[in-house]
């Protein structure tokens, strides 16, 4: 059911006949009919050919809202309010009509390319089954083959052999393309893309987003893009909705957000994003945590974390009030604080780049030379192909690279969790290439000198023990030479958590808090080197800043950071020096600012170019 | 008898003339080889073969293939074969066949358990066209029974031709009996049809269908549903339930089996006669007969059922003898008095006793005795052992202690009991004198029994031995068990029914008159 | 069936959190408690001596002095099933505890340390994985004639490899989690990591194994008893009672049916409790929205 | 090519299992108290000469390893010797007895599959609703009911009280055999159904929560296509594995069922042979069980290979 109207020029976005493609009014989603709400009173409108982004932190209710637009809300959840697609009410629609609407009317693309395709059937089968159910007739073999090739070509896959592959034989980016082809197979009028690039590399992300935009423009299709990345949203969409705790707090065109932000939360988000181009003096996100939706039904959900909040904000839920005809905000005080918001945003932007001195003479802490690692017994492939670098006293080193470039492997070799195949690692003059060869006493010393923080906050703490137990256990490993041991409570204070957290278990902590506990655990033995493997990659931006700030303080306190990340903005904030890893080799090294500002190697240039900038030019 | 709720001895209604197409018979187990000498039970094979002699219901020897026999010297027996006997295939029975069949009993290649009856056998020769003379190595007054138990005749020619697989379904020995197998499986039964050349009276039942139903409850259900017509494997401990099968008559013929406790008289603690007697007094034999055996059994006095003696004595004399056998009535005062005289005046004894797992009835007997002995402060612990293991331990003849077993006579003569249970020669591994009961006196009686040419003297010696053992409380007979049969009420059995005439019971099945 | 198989069954994606256990679980708990009380105090609580006979009366139906009637020796059925709880429960409990203990031991060591120990455990497991325990028990117990505790031993022996695999799988999913690597970087000893860090986290699995093994043991042992290979003849163990009293179904069906129902109810109650507990414990562990 | 190696390797493991199992059982029989000749004598009196003759006839006096070695060499040539109790060749006995057991297990498996898979799928679809609760409750009961108890109950209700079905034996002729098969097959299947239903439900639930199912639905694919190609296909690995285990375990269940219904099959044979120390038959049965287990597992793995391309890649490359 190709809609000829949708093929019109995408420029004309006014509702031609008054009905928007998708409209939601007072959408509420609750757990069970009477259960706690997850989405409350949400209004949203999407016109033909328009790209609208839905932005918000994890748990804000973005995915549920998207699912409501295609009537695929998970079982056990209850939807009420109004959801209309091309005027037809989805909430009251029966399953059979909804099914006929899906694919042709609305289609959806999910976040994780690794689970989105049926693992047991070939790529081609996915496409054919969708095409068949679209046309309602049987395609002949040759017709099908042609059609598959054409559809794959549309998403930039020119190799027809891909059709014969199984999903597990394709890379993440390829899978997302195949999925896109499937989603487009019935030529939908509206495509919902739920974080289609979150699981992908920055470079792949840019390609997929480009593809999405070109397809959207070619077909004049409506797109509802869900993302937690404001810059991605700004660079691709016509309008952006910002969600917080189950409802929309601000809605505007991208430029309006940066020029005249009208909600403190948006300002908080924008300023929490670490900049790529300069190092900021103070890193901080939004203080506090996202509240549970049911606790803020009758107040401004953001009030508790808002610097501008007054007691009035806790009386009644503020509606979305127009600022201009394209801009609306759910802040009651927007008129009063508009100016302050603007200056606050400007301030963070203008914050001084902190000068970094380039001292390459300080004492060597850690030296890695010729490090090679293969996981295969027959050495058929190498995860690390010869790494050399030096970490000096008082400096922190960043290690960047795409997924699979060997960052984690390097970290694990340094920690003795993997045995290097070849090469040498020297920590404070001790050869630690092979931990196995070390004596008991030496091992104990080494363990007191190098510690780590991992990516996943949810499994880096043992769920069976209290925070206090975990920290005290770590403290028990502290060497006598490391100076007087702090208490567990003191450690907690050092990472910005209250002493009362000692009695809690990890379950009761948010991701950011857990990461801080993990840092505290590492600090318990007062290590010389703290190795961080993507410590904030799993955290929301509003929380990232807090954790990064703690780490920065750590590095200023005499511990050298070895900071692994794929996020160039973060590495800029945290490190003095940087090495760039590509498939197990260092392709570029130098001070962070010089490498990021004047990348020499093509790979580095590609990495730098792939960082979302927040303007439309980024995708062209 | 006192408990006498149920009279022993089976009376069937009168027969009506007419043929029975098939009689379906249930068995508790398969019988293995189709060869009398090697089969693990004889329920099926007995219908296919004849021995030289047979028994009547009372247990008297009667002619079978031999129309007459006589003993011409202490070691010589002469048999006259019946005329005109034919094998299934129509070929006549010859003395050669009989000689061959007899010799099989002592052929180590056959390894027949029946060889035990042939220990005195020396040789057999044809002394006339229809006459055979058996020569023994030494006088054996019990040889005559061997001619009824072990001397079944098969066709020599066929047997020689199938030396390798004789007895398997592929090579069933040819015999002279009333029925021959049409199909046969060693484990699951078979179908037998009439032998057209049978020398005896033509039976009413045309064919016999045997099926193996190991589980007694299934067997009962099979009877009830008419899936089988008859079975001899009636579990006596469930007789009450079986008696209630509406379409079936369960009859209890006279048996020959005795449930017996033995005490190892030669080692502690049971070398103490007062302890043995105390235990004997504490066992409620009537209760067991009534409850465990549902009144189908009779409380025992001694170990040999009086019927055995009736073959040799008159009824009066038998009764007299029987009443003189020492008995330990169920009497706790007496038991305690005996115990007081023993080395365990206050009890405090633990008796550990194995029993044969397949004898489920033992479990109930022991449960009862356990309760009985509790009153003497004696703790009876019992545990079941799989049959193999049970026999292995029992026949090792060590640490015999107290045992519960049943003893069935292989032939109707007191000797079959007294010899195996009371001879000194049997107080060894793989033999049955579990009480190690023997003394100068008993051995003297045993000698008479074994060798005295005078039948009456021998039997009397046996009778004396029974009294001796009872007085000594070495063996305590618990109950005399009947020989049961469950038969669909449509049918009846012509004549008396007892364990001795069991061999040919299917030939005597008739349609029941109303 | 081996205990190991039922495990995957408990997995579901999202679960609702419940404050109070559902009524079925409460009932199951009450019932299990009753069985445990009977197993400990059964003979004391029984209205009659379970071994006391009344040879003169024999079988009587339910009612009057004997609530569930008597068996063919006039023994009180109610008292026997109460006293039989111990025989019925001890073996399964032993199986559950010992199997779980060894599976934990081997599972954690092999899963965490890998190497030769793991290789041995895995190869033995491969070999024994699909060997039906009941069948082997029939052969072994039947041949050796050792009875109840031999059967218990055989079942333990055959359940350990399968359960070890389950524990090992749970350990493997923990082994590479960052918190374990953090322990290693802190230089904690292997023994400490296994005992203090891995053990508590495989407890939900251990709990599931424990209860499943109990149920499995209950069914397997009563099956063996039914075949005459398990509990001692004449013992009031439930499987044995059912076999022994089959013939009484016409006169006093309780004698056979009550033990059968008790076996089923106990197995069902424990399974229910196990499912619920496993859900609860593993859900607590993964709660992070 | 690699598949051939894979199969060979698996068969090799099976052969190893067979050798170990047969050796184990042989030793067990050897050390266990009680001797076959006593079974043959059946408690009848015997003389030492007779015992010696029987032992000689069955070579029971040879050293243990010689006995095992002889058995093993002959077993390789598929000659499992003769039953001590019946003198029949073991292969003949097994062949005769395996048919009823095969019929039983196939009937049980068919019942299981046609009931359990739809029931499990249904329960998953009706997750947490009344239908699911009901299925789960029945499943719980089924898993808790020992096969023998179910057998006894069926026997009395449908065999005795209602007299709809015969109460014992195998029956003769197709119709009668089928009639005789009904109750035993149900008794055998009850536990299996419960078990497979549970597995299916769990598998289907986890599949149903997967992104690819959501994605398929979002493309408007038909309900039946999603059930078949997505839910069923992706759940089939655990279901196939579970069914395989059931087949491998059939013999264990068959013992109970065949004893209860007095059927002549491998199960009842097993019990009899074990109790009568019929060494060749026990050995033959153990070999049979090991071969079945190996073949069933191999079959399951091959089916899984056919279903799952990832496994295929791992194994065949
Ligand atoms: N099936 C479900 N049952 C119950 N609660 C759910 C379900 N799915 C989501 N939720 C809850 O609803 C809330 C919003 O979820 P949603 O997936 O819409 O968030 P999101 O904004 O997409 O977050 P993310 O960025 O992490 O994807 C969360 O708190 C989540 O725990
Ligand atoms: N345990 C392992 N066994 C085999 N190969 C591995 C193992 N761990 C990593 N590899 C391979 O080594 C290479 C480097 O992986 P590594 O995890 O070090 O990359 P990374 O840079 O940390 O990637 P990411 O950003 O995705 O975390 C990859 O090709 C990966 O597939
Ligand atoms: Mg989401
Ligand atoms: Mg990594």
Automatic annotation (TrEMBL), chain A:
Membrane topology, as annotated: Peripheral membrane protein
One example GO MF annotation: ATP binding
Coiled-coil blocks: none
PROSITE patterns named among the record's database cross-references: ABC_TRANSPORTER_1 (PS00211), ABC_TRANSPORTER_2 (PS50893)
UniProt main location, coarse: membrane
Record has Mitochondrion as a keyword: no
Protein name from the UniProt record: ABC transporter ATP-binding protein
Organism annotation: Kribbella hippodromi
Lineage, broadest ranks: Bacteria, Bacillati, Actinomycetota, Actinomycetes, Propionibacteriales
UniProtKB/TrEMBL annotation, chain C:
Localization per Swiss-Prot or TrEMBL: Cell membrane
Transmembrane segments: 23-46, 88-109, 129-158, 256-278
Domain named ABC transmembrane type-1: residues: 89-274
Pfam families: BPD_transp_1 (PF00528), OppC_N (PF12911)
Keyword hit for Membrane: yes
Membrane topology classification: Multi-pass membrane protein
InterPro entries in the cross-refs: BP-dependent_transpt_permease, MetI-like, MetI-like_sf, OppC_N
Source taxon at top rank: Bacteria
Keywords, alphabetical: Cell membrane, Membrane, Transmembrane, Transmembrane helix, Transport
Family membership noted in the UniProt record: Belongs to the binding-protein-dependent transport system permease family.
Record PANTHER family: D,D-DIPEPTIDE TRANSPORT SYSTEM PERMEASE PROTEIN DDPC-RELATED, OLIGOPEPTIDE TRANSPORT SYSTEM PERMEASE PROTEIN APPC
Protein name according to UniProt: ABC transporter permease
Organism: Kribbella hippodromi
From TrEMBL, chain D:
InterPro entries per the UniProt record, alphabetical: BPD_transp_1_N (IPR045621), MetI-like (IPR000515), MetI-like_sf (IPR035906)
Main subcellular localisation: membrane
Residues that span the membrane, as ranges: 12-31, 102-125, 137-165, 177-196, 237-261, 281-303
Domain ABC transmembrane type-1: 98-304
Subcellular location(s) per record: Cell membrane
Statement: the UniProt record of this protein carries the keyword Nucleotide-binding: no
UniProtKB keywords: Cell membrane, Membrane, Transmembrane, Transmembrane helix, Transport
Superkingdom, taxonomy of origin: Bacteria
A Pfam cross-reference name: BPD_transp_1
NADP as UniProt keyword: no
Entry membrane topology: Multi-pass membrane protein
Membership in a protein family: Belongs to the binding-protein-dependent transport system permease family.
Name under which the protein is recorded: ABC transporter permease
Organism: Kribbella hippodromi
